[in-house]
Amino acid sequence: MFKKILVGIDGSAMGDKAFNTALTLAKGWGAELFLVHVMPMPTLPNVFPPGAIAYVPESVLQDLTREIKEKAEKTLEERLNQVKEKGVTGQIKVLKGEPASAIASFAQEEGIDLIVVGSRGISGVKELMLGSVSHKISQLARCPILIVK
């Protein structure tokens, strides 16, 4: 049925449930599993509180970006090992930017047949104000979405 499944990995409990569900589906259908993490780009508002005045050298932001990416890659590699242990083919990808649009764009570019995401990630109160990533993906994506509760 589905040959390419994308699962969003964000480090949350719901993300873990989405991963397990996607892995089960990929194994059952013989699909390839794409493990995707979207990293926010560090900007001054993300690093310092509102109203703070600071100068941060570009090299510091570059170092922070590299550290965030390395941590995400390590997490994805660990998940990919679990995927391979189950006999499923998988790929990892760290994307940059706003999660919903990055995932929807990547899914379209790669010809993804199904996107699996958790119903709530790690964003908490911010999510209630701006709308959930899963909801935004369901509006942007051109393929079926499975939102795991």
From TrEMBL:
Query: From which domain of life does this come?
Result: Bacteria
Spell out the family assignment given in the record's similarity comment: Belongs to the universal stress protein A family.
Report the InterPro entries cross-referenced here.
Answer: Rossmann-like_a/b/a_fold (IPR014729), Universal_stress_UspA (IPR006015), UspA (IPR006016)
SUPFAM superfamilies associated with the record = Adenine nucleotide alpha hydrolases-like
The cross-references to Gene3D superfamilies, in alphabetical order and at most eight, read: HUPs
Q: Which organism is it from?
A: Carboxydothermus pertinax
The name of this protein is UspA domain-containing protein
Checking Pfam families in the record gives: Usp
**Ranges for the UspA domain?**
1-149
